[in-house]
Amino acid sequence: MRIQAEFVANSANTLLTSLRVGLPNLAEQLNVATSQPTSADYIALAGYLRSHPYIANLILYGPTGRMLLNTAAPFGTPLPNISPRTREEVRQALRGNGLQLGRTQRGLIYHGWHLTVLYALHSSTGQPIALLQANLPVDLLTGQWASMSLLPETGLGLLRTDGYVLARLPEPGSMTTLYGRRYRGSLVEAVMRHPERLEGPYSGRVEVDGRDRIGAYARLAQIPAVAFVSLPLSRVWSLWWHHLLPILGVGLVSLIGFMALIARLFSRERQHALSLAAERDRHVWIARHDPLTQLPNRVALAEHLTLALARARRRERLLAVGLFDLDDFKDVNDRYGHAGGDRLLRALGDVLRQSMRETDYIVRLGGDEFVLLFEDLEDIDDLMTALERLQQELAEPILIEAGERIVVAASLGLSIYPFDDAEADTLLRHADQALYHSKKHKNTRQHFWALYEHDGEQSKRHLHTRRRLEAGELHVYYQPILDLQTRQIVGVEALARLIDRQTGVISEPAQFLPDLDTSEDQYHLVRQVLRQVDTDVQVWDRAGLSELSVSVNLPPSLLMRGPWLDRLLSTIGEMRLPPHRLILEVLETEGDIPLENTIDSMLALKSRGIRFALDDIGSAYSTLLRLKDLPVDSVKLDQGFVRELCSHPEDLIFIEALMGIAEVLEIDFIAEGVETLSILDALQGLHVPKAQGYAIARPMPGNQFLEWYHHYQPPIEGPNTLLGLYAAHRQRDYFFHHLLTQNPGFLQSSSEESLLGQVIVPGLLERLGHAGSELDVAHHRYHDVLLTILAKEGVSAEKILEFERASATLDALLEDVIRKNALACQA
């Protein structure tokens, strides 16, 4: 159809090409300066008509649209008036340039349908003065097209790009309807959508005959019109099937034969593959199952136990690994032979299948040894229920041969995850140890099973403590933290307590934490503490304590094991407490925290705004070595350095040293274990930043903390005790010694009153009952040495030596008196 469209376009272009040159030449011969044409103009038109016989007639219109000349009528004959529509079209053509195609019309004098070719004449100033129209009979074109070899129902013709049909073959019944209206069909849409295309396809409904057609078009040269050829869509499908059906028939027969061959080959291959798969599955099954009992064997156990352990960790459920065997199985073999023993083992396998749950797993290791896996246990009660049912089934006689049944005795050793937080091989080994314990006491035991216990009673204590946690006996107590510089309470430490529901006895962490030795239990403890903290803090915030920080103890194991970090982040994410107010205290003993496993976890938590404190600093040498690497925000001094100060006041030097390390690292420093006012007084004298202990407040429930906070009175500024005086003396002595050796000029220029205020505590020794004592004398001697220096006598080596002797004497006497009065200091 594309080639046919080009032929139609070429036939129209041939006619129009001669007119594109001839009409402008004819226009130059006409004298149309006035609206009254002459006979010479008529002769020029007639002469052009004779040389172009395919033109039906020529018409000349004036600038107003009035017909001036028409070669279809003699010169001077009155010419008919044209219709208003035609007059308007003439006026529009007068405004155009070059060759134009008008609407196909029926002539007023020459009554045939003709294609109108228009050419506008303009004055030298560009004003339109006349319009020359050449009428080409439509039959001239359609006659040429009819000679083409066309398929039935082919439609072809010319279309102006604005939607007017110029010529069409075949012509519909009403020519007036065909040429008198503007169409908006699929061809017009295709031509207008792609104005840059010289040719192209189109398809859709055609308004001329109302049918769905598919066709092609080609544009005319320099004329806004296209030639088109189309066929009804139904005709195209008919032709396609007419030509394709024989080919399809042959192809279909060939395809059926080919597919039959392929199907036969595929069937053979499939049967072979199924046979191989079945054989492979049979070999795999044999490799993973015991041939006697048809139960899974040791190979299957290795894979299944690892997966079961992973499921238990993911679902936070218990997994019991049991090692089971018969008591005195040798006696059965001796009495009934090995065949009888095999029958017993097969029957025992059936008993185990029937008595255990669908989620459990039974394995025969060999001989009379079996492994029993109890999965998806919510608590110990679930396990006890399963074991009691198994014990009842084993109490029933088992048919061993015709007419004879025997009752078998068995032993079972169990290791329970997460109470035994170990890997698969270790769980089996521990279950074996428990089995040994069960067999050893088979004559005195109450049950046929025994639990693996680290020290014989640990599992029972573990289970008891876990049940207390689940029963809601956990309570959170809070111990305040005092800022010794501002003398304000700036935070609290959350401390776990177990309170017996029946007796009200309070258990501190040292009493129950050893029983929670698995990461699972430790996580549950931390989660409960965090949730209670979140609830209590909301109450405090509403009472105006919205700046308090809360410290919560975190076992190092939760920073080293992947799943616990994710769970911890999830729990903290659920809290309403702002993350920057939460401090996680990590207790480290030597070797507890591998840096490579911990720092990433700590940084992940710190990225949420959470802070870290390293507890019991100084308790392990490794702690000090790692302090520079761990991303902590504060350190808490080990209580051992603080509690013994009354007996060992010289230990203040260690506190000063550790405080100096914290200052260099730019982290906060907190002293714990401040049990007495003397120790608190000493820490104030050393300018320790923060303190925590009984001297400030004992741990208390959250509902009591608010009342305590509003009535709390900060300690009196010291020193007020001998230990406080000793600590203050160390600080001031260092100050003066530094000035004497490094900046003596400052001492000489300072006033006596300002410097004496640094060392003299009026009446303190007298209030403490040491007036006139050797200590009092040494104290005054120390001051007298300073007075001589302040008296402008100058600083010499002798003066510095005298000062150092007086200072050392005072230090020794203070330490001695403090030790002798240790009981009073500790009060």
From TrEMBL:
InterPro entries, per database record: Cyclic-di-GMP_PDE-like, EAL_dom, EAL_sf, GGDEF_dom, Nucleotide_cyclase, Rev_trsase/Diguanyl_cyclase
EAL domain ranges (all copies): 458-713
PANTHER family: CYCLIC DI-GMP PHOSPHODIESTERASE PDEF (PTHR33121), SIGNALING PROTEIN YKOW (PTHR33121:SF70)
Keywords in alphabetical order: Membrane, Transmembrane, Transmembrane helix
Gene3D superfamilies cross-referenced by the UniProt entry: 3.30.70.270, EAL domain (3.20.20.450), PAS domain (3.30.450.20)
Stretches assigned to the GGDEF domain: 317-454
Transmembrane segments: 244-266
Organism placement in taxonomy: Bacteria, Pseudomonadati, Pseudomonadota, Gammaproteobacteria, Chromatiales
Pfam families assigned to the protein according to its UniProt record, in alphabetical order: EAL, GGDEF
SUPFAM superfamilies associated with the record: EAL domain-like, Nucleotide cyclase
CDD domains for this protein: EAL, GGDEF, PDC1_HK_sensor, PDC2_DGC_like
Descriptive protein name: Diguanylate cyclase
Keyword Transmembrane helix: yes
GO molecular function, one term: cyclic-guanylate-specific phosphodiesterase activity
